[in-house]
Amino acid sequence: MEAAMAEFECLGSLGPITAVTNEFLREQTPHNENEYEEQVRRLYDPAAYAIPVRPPVSAAASLFALPPDDDVDRVSRLPDALLRDVVSRLPVKDAARTAALSHRWRGVWRSTPLVLHDVDLLPDTSAVSRVLDAHPGPFRCVYLTSTLAEGFRGLLARWLRLLAAKGIQELVLVNARWPLDYVLPASLLGLTTLTRLYLGMWRFPDTAGLPRATCFRNLRDLGLYNVLVERRDLDFILDRSPVLETLCLQGNVLKLRIRLVSQSLRCVQIIGCFIEEIFVLDAPNLERFIYSDAWHPVGNCTTTVKIGHAPKLHLLGYLALDPRKHVLDVGNTIIKAGIGMSPSTMLQGVKILALEVRFAVRNDVKMIPNVLRCFPNVETLHIMSGKDDQSTGKLNLRFWHKSGTIECIRSRIKLLVVRDFKGGRSEMAFLKFFFQSALVLEEVVILLPDDPTDRMCRKVVSLRHIERASEASVLWASQSVPEGFVRSIERASDFSLGDPFANYCPIGLQSPRLSS
């Protein structure tokens, strides 16, 4: 562990990021070396980010004014709107070169809302300045993800001022230089024409001195990836973004208390963050709330997930039943095993629920009945079988029969998905109870780990012979999908996907290890 810390510290001064990470390392024991490496990768490897959009250009495209064996310039005869659409799909170098094709094209580049990706200009990073100076705007989208020019900080402030003056719709800005906690220029907050903003590896600018009239009236999508942001600044952005629909926070290592107050938010995704409390105070249009890969860098740090006014909430997960990770608060009542339930502690609108359960830990399993009673109308239940880092005794089928009727299992749930199936005694007892109680169950999907043991495969096969209350239920087995599926904000915010968690391909029980 000392060697790992020394290697990490030699990377440079990272300010608060270094402080938090070092504190995390000091709290770990040697057997958590792999966890340390994974957390560092999540924090400092840009490839781990869930930035969802890509520049709408084709680097492989070729543009010809004259088709082969044809001396008639038909392309130049197209209407201006079509020519601008063609130019907008080209890398910025090629877009600028279209001015040399013919007299007809000379004004097209300057009148086209430009797509600028600094990767297309490498290694000549000074070309970014020349393009921003030459083009009158507006800019359709700008990607600054790879610029390493000397004097970058001064350049960035100037670039942002130019974009504010000329207009910009989409901006993706990733810090490719050390230190990774560099404070973004305040001119970022002058980009009031933005519709989408994605930031990676920065410290968010202080909003305390901004004019009260500051408003991001067009901003619909906001993603902050390993961005150090204070609660007051996040509150400010949410308050001044009246049409914001999608919010994604990933890798924030400052201890945050998030309060969601928004009339427009539809999807919130929080990935790998260090959160003390998430309070959905007033979000009347919130439909999806995804919280995954929570990071607890200094020992036990429980995240309280408190649901207030969110009448349209349709999807929620992953809630960990490990009390060291999550505490669920509904209607100002902390949900625990054995407490009495009432309408005020129920979220009637949730139809898709995802839970993380350590089946070898009695207290986790005992939480399942009351947590499910909070969601009486759930139709799809995802359960991730958590890592059994400790075993405190197993619960058999008798426990489930004594727990009484769970209404959503009995009469609502149509699809059950178990991810990272292990086949332990408590897990099998839960599945037996589920199969015997679920009257409307249509499909069960068992997702095995990447390298399942023969024992796991035999347990899956044995599920075929369990008595089922619903004869229509179909059992599938498949491999788990890559880790990053939960992190995909593109999936999370794609409302054409009924269930963004359902990223798997059932293969049945026909493989040799599952057919006997």
From TrEMBL:
Instruction: State the InterPro entries in the record.
Output: F-box-like_dom_sf, F-box_AtFBL13-like, F-box_dom, F-box_dom-containing, FBD, LRR_dom_sf, LRR_FXL15/At3g58940/PEG3-like
Query: What CDD domains is this protein classified in?
Result: F-box_AtFBL13-like
By its UniProt entry, which SUPFAM superfamilies does this protein fall under?
F-box domain, RNI-like
Q: Which Pfam families match?
A: F-box (PF00646), FBD (PF08387), LRR_At5g56370 (PF24758)
Domain F-box: from-to ranges: 72-119
Q: Which PANTHER family match?
A: F-BOX DOMAIN-CONTAINING PROTEIN (PTHR32141:SF63), PTHR32141
Q: What is this protein called?
A: F-box domain-containing protein
Organism of this sequence: Triticum aestivum
